[in-house]
Amino acid sequence: HATLVISSMAAAAGPDPELARAFTALQQKMAETQSGVRFSEIQINQKQMAIKRAALTAKELEGLPGDVRVYKSVGRMFLLQPQAELKKEIDDRIKSDQAAITQAQDRKTYLERSLKDSEESLREMIRQRVRPQ
């Protein structure tokens, strides 16, 4: 939507090479930024799913008596591991994934803000070209 408004304004402004370069640069930046936003969203979803799996595993471990043997999957093999150690690993994984989600959300917010600022600066440039000073 914003691209359509900008392109119609650019067309009305006439063939200004500086404006055309700025418009092309903005389109490229918008594509890169949108790709970065999608990547951040994918990362957030993946980490949320990993947290859900880890929480489910932790919940299942809570219901087990202390003397039950538990195994950790490592590649194609399973290693006998103390329950307390496995629970700690799961908790650490949850904390690490939560931190990764926070970083991805911050990156997404930054990219969205950067995109909005770029669009606004191009609109201002178009306004200045349309209205001779």
Strand order of the largest sheet: 1-2
Mean pLDDT, as a whole number?
85
Main beta-sheet strand count, sense and barrel state = 2 strands, antiparallel
Q: How many angstroms separate the termini?
A: 28 Å
Number of strands: 2
Low-confidence stretches: 1-6
| Strand composition percent | 5-15%
Task: Give the overall silhouette.
Answer: rod-shaped
Question: What structural class do helix, strand and pairing data support?
Answer: mainly alpha
Percentage of residues in helical conformation: over 70%
Give me the strand/helix succession.
HHEEH
Q: How much is the radius of gyration in Å?
A: 25 Å
Write a short abstract of this structure:
This protein is mainly alpha-helical and 133 residues long. It is built from 3 helices and 2 strands, in the order H-H-E-E-H. The chain is rod-shaped.
Describe this structure in words.
By secondary structure, the chain is mainly α. It contains three helices and two strands, in the order ααββα. It has helices at 2-13, 17-62, 83-130; strands at residues 70-74, 77-81. Strands 1-2 form a two-stranded antiparallel ribbon. α1 (2-13) runs antiparallel to α2, α1 (2-13) runs parallel beside α3 and α2 (17-62) runs antiparallel to α3.
